[in-house]
Amino acid sequence: MKKQLISSTIFKLLERFTLIIVSLLLTPYLINHLGINGYGFWLLVLSVLGWFNIVDLGFPSAVQRHIIFALESNDKDKVNIVFSTSVILFVVLGGISAALLLVLSSFSLSLFGNVDSSITPILSVFAIKVFLDFFMNSFHGFFSAFMRYDIDSNITSLNVLIKSLLIALVIPEYGVWGAVLATIFADLVTNGLKIRYAKKLYPPLSFRLSYFRYEEIVSLFSYSKHVIAAGIAKAINLRADPFIINKFLDITSVATYGIANRLAMHVRALVFTINDMLSPIFIKKSANKQDMEMIFNNAININCFTACLLFTPLIVLGHFFITLWVGEEFKDAIYIIYFIVFTFICRIISSSVNQVLLAQAKHKLISVVNLTGAILNITLSIFLAEKYGLIGIAMGTSIGFFISDVLLSLFLLKKYNPYNINLVIVNLVKTALFVYSVGLSLRYYVEMNYVITWFNFIFLGLIVTAITLILAWFIILNNKFKKMLASQVLKFTTKVKQNYYE
User: What is the 3-state secondary structure (H, E, C) of 105-171?
Assistant: First the structure.
């Protein structure tokens, strides 16, 4: 399992880097050809699509869990029952979701205010993508169950490359419509590959109507019903800001916020690369009735370490990069990033807590926690937007996440597990202090002594990363984990030497 996890981590990181590089190259290209308003409009469309994930009713996580349990029991019929039932389930849910998007598209002009009239036909065409995304949920569980994130990552990277190349070719002539058609075409190609490789991973995989079981639907719903509100809350937390900004500010502000959020999200994706692959391990341990406290604490610690390693350079050099990347007019986005980074630090806690509780099927109150955070997020964002504009919205989101993803999540963990949360709190405080004290101090020094050029950015990036790595190694990473990493490095170098002399 360790070997597979390491391999999957490498390919997941390659996927993240591919996505980041392509996105960083494509964003100024989109702004240049669509304009700031056009780019803000495109981000608004993508935010609308994100809302339709809530219609899955939490079933993807339930299906993943059931597939893993079925595979652990070596019951081929049970695996096919779960798979076939999930296919029918997601076809129905995908059809409902696509229909809802079509209905929404007909009211989009009145709902979203001062936006381009093309939003109606664009959302209608994107109903195809929504349906396909739902259908593919039946296959994703196999990649995670077999810890073959390398396959999933490679196909996702291919999707990004195809889509980006097509967008670059057609957007000068067709505008946003070119991006829409390129997105759907890339999904069709790569979804076909995912289906093929899921079958290759598990040759007995078979879809039959006779495998459909109503009791399996009931069982899936029994697990997922408490995830419904959590999914709604998550969608609100992640997707509400663009709508609030468009309502209380303007479409140009959506673009500015989108720049900040997109850059921070890319760094966040790298921070959580390992964490995102731990869910099957938690589920396997739960299936075998093993204790999870050690892996929980290790997950928190490694996430805090990678957060320091990656968010600190973002704080230090974010203003350099934004100016070089998309222009001087977006330089104030760095102040939004400061608050977004804090929300991601808070999510280090909730992500690991949720993995434990979902694996144990003790997730009933996660929805209450997330919904509370979503309500606080919207309420505070609207209130503070009137006083502080974009910064106010970012502040409201940060406060909401701190209450829900730290305070309430830790309360929930203690309710079901006798874990020692002192280590968690210490890790969180140390991480926040590290990122902002080291980050802002180095940023002040950089601003006072360097001019904004690509050479200086690359040079300072290497220096800041090296300094951050050394400091975080001694301040953040726990001794047990350092010894384990040192042991793995020693084994690897010994093996390399043996192979060399042989």
Answer: HHCHHHHHCCCCCCHHHHHHHCHHHHHHHHHCHHHHHHHHHCCCHHHHHHHHHHHHHHHHHHHHHHH
